[in-house]
Amino acid sequence: MDENKEEKQPVKTKKKEKENLTDEEKSKKYLPLRIAAFVVAVIAAVGFLTYGIVMIGHKDEGYQTVEPDAVDDTVVYSGNLKFEYYFTGSSSEIKRSLNELRQKYGIAVNRIVKLFDADTEYDDFNNIHTVNTNIGKAVRVNTELYAVLEDAYAKTKENRGYNMFAGALYKEWNSILVLEDPAEYDPLNNKKEAERIKNISEMVNDLNNFELVFDKDAQTVKLVVSGKYKAFSNENELSDAPIIDLNLLYEAYEIKTVSESLGTDGYKNGYFTTSGGLSVSLSENDHDAVYDLLFYNNGAVQSAANAKMTKGSALSQFRAFAYKDKEYYYYTVEMNGKTYRRNPFLTAGGEFNDVIMSSYVLSDSLSVVDTCYANIVLHAQKTAADVASEAEKLNAAVAYILQNDAKPTLYMNKAAENVLAVNPDLVK
Asked: Which residues have C-beta within 8 Å of that of residue 295, sequence separation ≥ 6?
């Protein structure tokens, strides 16, 4: 062997170097990469989280639900109104406008709820309760309440199904409608209750027992009550029942007054709906919203028809059925093979006529109060023939479904034929 020839040493390749690294060496080597990957992941997560948080409060152009801000703790707002308003502009502009509207809406609702309260007194605030408890005295009221009482009095004197002096009657019926087991106290099953309701109804519908005296210059209203009614009230323990009560027109007056108040501040581009079946489109509201007319069939609530929601229009829906299995103010009583449907839309006569299952009055010219009043007049009719006759007389689009038809059918007056898109299953 050549001693002068150097022995070649094996050369380690990079691959072999990697393979021969210890776990600790590998960990140290890749630590910077891991840190970088972690930082990137954190930045991405923060970015997504920030974007999500920003988008939660983001507002796009369109309808936004407006909840009234709480003004004070004197009124527990029932939440019977739903207010949708159409906002335009950037997200920040919409949020600012929405907050402003919530405040103004809260102030308006708080005032009107107090104003129309027939049962509760408020400090330095003359309302319906004030008029009720100052019989024979002229009570100064604000312009809004003065106009409402004057209008309700005129409608009462027409004697067509509405009576602002029927507070005792509605209080008696409502005390039954809200029970967990109302059938036991229903007049059909309870002779004592039947007699009581009959007597109250006769007394409140004798309009000779009541008078409202208006003084426009002094802006006062005076309630005059007969001695006959006072004695009846005492004998039947009705002293806690209000005499004046807006009853079936309460929500209509509420929406009208609130929307007019907001309109003076320029809020005219939205619509209201109520738990009592009213919908009102404000004077500048002209978007893609529609009125949906609902009916009851085989245990389910379905669409009977729909109509475009136009500027300044109003819809009144009355129903004799519940939307869900358990809904207060709705129940049925069975007797002699017939179903009697109880609901909040009791007209001033004090008895359910059990003719109409659901009714709809839609108008773009009548006020919401007059639209609702037209539906009251319709429900006061005692036969299907009377309902059909009255529907043709009303100055509005009218549709209805009867309780006793074997197949649900939507009847319409001429004014409704070109307004409603009808469910084909309901065409006769």
From this structure: 301, 302, 303, 304, 357, 358, 401, 408, 410, 426
**Reduced to 3 states, what is the DSSP secondary structure of residue 220?**
strand
Reported as a single tens digit per residue, the pLDDT across 122-164 is 988 899 999 999 999 999 999 999 999 999 999 999 999 999 9
**CB 162, CB 376: distance < 8 Å:** yes
Q: For residues 301 and 295, is the Cβ–Cβ distance under 8 A?
A: yes
| Amino acid, single-letter form, for residue 100 | E
Query: What is the arithmetic mean of pLDDT over 287-305?
Result: 93
Rounded CA separation 392/321 (Å):
25
pTM for this model (two decimals): 0.86
| CA separation for the pair 183, 33 (Å, rounded) | 76
**Within 13 Å, how many C-alpha atoms sit on residue 363's CB side?**
17
Q: Give the gyration radius of the chain's Cα atoms.
A: 33
The conformation of residue 8, written as its DSSP 8-state character, comes to P
User: Please, how many CA atoms are within 13 Å of residue 314, restricted to the half-sphere of its CB?
Assistant: 22
**Do residues 363 and 314 make contact, with C-beta atoms less than 8 angstroms apart?**
yes
Q: In what order do the strands lie in the sheet with 314-319?
A: 62-66, 81-87, 270-274, 278-281, 314-319, 356-363, 397-402, 411-412
